[in-house]
Design goal:
There is one protein chain. The chain starts with 20 loop residues before the first helix and ends in a 6-residue tail after the last helix. It has 9 helices and 2 strands. With 179 residues, the protein is mainly alpha-helical. The chain has a two-stranded antiparallel ribbon. The chain is globular and about 45 Å long.
Length: 179
């Protein structure tokens, strides 16, 4: 996968040793055994975040995970979506350093590159996967205000498809302006 080679993984100052990252990405992409790909996903998370706090490796990890997400399905895609949401949520961002805030913004910008794929998952997948995408679309609107109108339309369509997500959609909609 081309995306793997776009980064010099060994040069990132991450939360864990990054020398195994390319191998773990390949396992995540190729393995059909949940124990293997799940372990790889955990390793990637521990490198790219410290309890959700980003590091300089987080945007690259989001980029590659987003590329893998469009190539897989089922439980593996669900778990990748879950990690993408965790890496871009910005939980506790008011306490982040300026560098951490920048890495969060860059990570959300990586979501913009797969925005239509996230919408496609909302449109055609499970309610659980749709909920993860709801959150990520909200992060896009929060960090890139010109996306607000488009995000609101997709969230309304998602709410029609999954009425049980109404409360979640209402909650996340409060995080971005109506402009």
């Amino acid at each position: 996968m081309w995306e793997f080679s776009c980064y010099d993984w060994g040069k990132f100052d991450a939360h864990r040793d990054t020398s195994r990252v390319p191998q773990m990405l390949q396992v995540l992409l190729d393995s059909e055994h949940e124990g293997e790909w799940s372990s790889a996903l955990s390793y990637l998370e521990s490198c790219a975040s410290d309890l959700g706090v980003p590091c300089c490796m987080t945007p690259a990890t989001v980029s590659v995970l987003a590329s893998i997400m469009i190539r897989v399905d089922g439980k593996k895609r669900s778990e990748i979506l879950s990690l993408l949401e965790e890496l871009t949520c910005g939980r506790g961002a008011s306490e982040y350093s300026e560098a951490q805030k920048m890495w969060l913004r860059e990570s959300v910008q990586e979501l913009l590159l797969v925005f239509k794929n996230l919408v496609d998952v909302m449109e055609r997948s499970s309610v659980e996967d749709a909920e993860r995408c709801v959150d990520m679309l909200a992060y896009c609107a929060e960090h890139v205000p010109c996306m607000t109108g488009r995000v609101r339309k997709y969230l309304a369509l998602c709410q029609e498809r999954f009425p049980r997500l109404s409360d979640e959609i209402q909650a996340v909609s409060e995080y971005f302006s109506s402009e």
